[in-house]
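User: Please predict structures.

Assistant: First:
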Amino acid sequence: MTVLQACEVAGVEIPRFCYHSRLSIAGNCRTCLVEVEKSPKPVASCTMPALPEMVTTLHFGKTTLKKGAWSREEDQKLINYINRYRIWIWSEMPKAAGLLRSGKSCRLRWVNYLMTYFHIVGMGPCYWKTFTNSSFSTTNYCNSC
């Protein structure tokens, strides 16, 4: 019995695409990933044999990131973080700022919408010149790449 089958018996639903009870086990889609206690990385629940006293948790990977329109609260978190720390490592910024967004999403939001507003409100041309010279040669590439 696999972890996926044991979860079905227990009434826990694990998402899956390639698994069917009448077909051979392939584990190709990787949709049914679970984290097994004391295992270094997630495993496919359709291929992992269930053991007594095994502790597993569902693994959803990057599905926790928000997509779509930004809320005012998210904008404010991004502005506050940049205003306070002046850190331009976009890949690390969302987690540090408490946002459930990708680094690219934060960078694009800042460059295309918020930076212009911030500049108009009173950052001044000195800040603008320093920012454009030190952080980006173009707005398509960040300084940490």
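Second:
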Amino acid sequence: MALTSLPNEILLAITSNLTDEPDLNALAQTNRRFYETLDEELYRLNVETGKSSSLLWASLHGHDASVRKLLRLKANVNACTNMRKTTLPEAISVENASIVTQNLKQEITENRARLIASPLVYAAAMNHTSIMRLLIDAGAEVHRRHGCHRNPIMAAADQGRVDALEMLLDAGADIEAHGANCNTPLSLAASKGHLPAVKTLLARGAAVNTIRRGRTALIRAALIGHSETVRALLDAGADVAPHDNNECTALMVAAQHGHYDTVRVLLDAGADPTAKDYTDRTAINWAMEGDHDDIVALLLDRTTPDLEAASSNGYTLLSWAVSAAAPRCATLLLDRGADLAAPQPPPLWIAVASGDRPFTKDGKTRAIATLKLLLAHGARADFVHAHESDPCPPVVAAVMRNRFPEAAVLLDVAGVDPNSASEKGITVLLAAINRDCASEVDAILAYGADPNQPRSSNGQTPLAAAVHTGNTAVVRLLLKHGATPRPADLRASLHGAALYGDSTMFDTGAGNILEIARLLIEHGADPTRDLPDGGGRLLLAVVSKGHADFLSTLLKGWSLPVNYSVHNDKTPLFVAVRQGNIEMARVLLAHGADPNHVKSGRPLLAWAKECNGDDGASLVQMLVEHGGRCDEVEGLGRVEQVIEAQETIYSGIAEMGL
């Protein structure tokens, strides 16, 4: 008999053995008869084994009938189920996004692993008042906070649900309740700009000046620029004076975020535009952070401050505008008579050397625009700022502080000398070299910087500085623009590879440093003159790193000590033999390398014999051909005779014309 033909009694008897909700749900969905027969059983199973999770789903989606059915089956009206263990994640899928408000959907999605809430919380958040009434009448707790630290009234305030708020307050909900973030319903509604909810809470007696997490409801509303909410709070007696944890007032946060209408409302309500935070900044200073010149103009009109008055750090209003990279605000102040020369440090110094650019997408653009504005108004760029450990001009300071775009403006627009230097002789070029930035070095050289200008305090040239940093690209650029190597430069380049230091010979950086040495030698450095051993260690390093072309260049151009050895008796030829490098061994032997050198009591032929395969045999033959004595090397006694016989045979073949 087919399953669909069974009587309902037998079908229910079968399903009574199904204890897993998904199994029963799958069976119920096979046809309409099964659904109508098993629907009640599915709800019962959820209540008994599923922690009444369906009540959460029904409360969220506004299914009154499902809520009634679940309550009739004694579902737990205060069920608090971890979202990970319910059907709720599926209920808030993209397909159902229209059912759930975006803020609530985002919160549930981001926190589903830890979010625990009751049916009343979700019904309140969705403003399902009919379901709320069912839940409250069934004993739902209106004060209860859950694992997510939200209670029903906080959920309603967060979503701006006026009807839900009214019902909860009528049921005895605490109007001053707060969650883990210490918001009250009023401050939470104000922070979201839910004006009707704010008015409802105020009308029901919410305390308007309660401070939570250092902020009042007024400060939170001012932060988002909801001027109507701000006005409602002010009408209810909100105090404009309190500061938040950063000592900022509502006026300051509104000015910082560019909320002009909110600033005007606060000023009309008596907010003090001269109040200061812990950094000595006023609302005007905060408005400059976003270059909100309209707000700065409004505040200036209300306060008429002394434009040349300095704050505790010596900054005038113009200095603050420049520091904030606020060109529109700086223009406003200059048009109103701000003095470019009065403050110390000068605004132009602040523009290129003090602080960082704003951390915004347009921060660099604003900084450059501010600097150009100062130059257009006649700001000098050729001064030396004395209040530095090494007094220097702005262009040098800009490069030192990683502000090369500003330095380029000074070189381009202001026409400052590209060879400007600090009192200790740090030039623009040296500053870029010390920062190890080849692109900046290239640009500064293009502006006409002298690649041979020495540093005044110790005589270090740009080339010497580049050699010291080991930047091959910078060395190449300097040589290209006419830098002249000095005797000390070649030794300095090799000192970094420990060739002329106190440690062992070849470190991991020797390859790059040898490239610098090669560049210096190609441009006039003389290894036999500039190196204390006539270039012996350089020769060892070149062979060790396998630079065959460089080796040929050195031996063809200079009489280097080809048999130079260090304290461990290593010669260039020994290194080539141990590496099995036939090409380098041939070059060295051709330039007089000793084939009979003894290392650790063993002649070179003995070391060559240990090389594997054909390379070893070729090296042995090459050494013998250049005078290597093999009579003391075991196994090599007849090598000379063999070579002589080979030569005789080859000679005979040649005479026969074969």
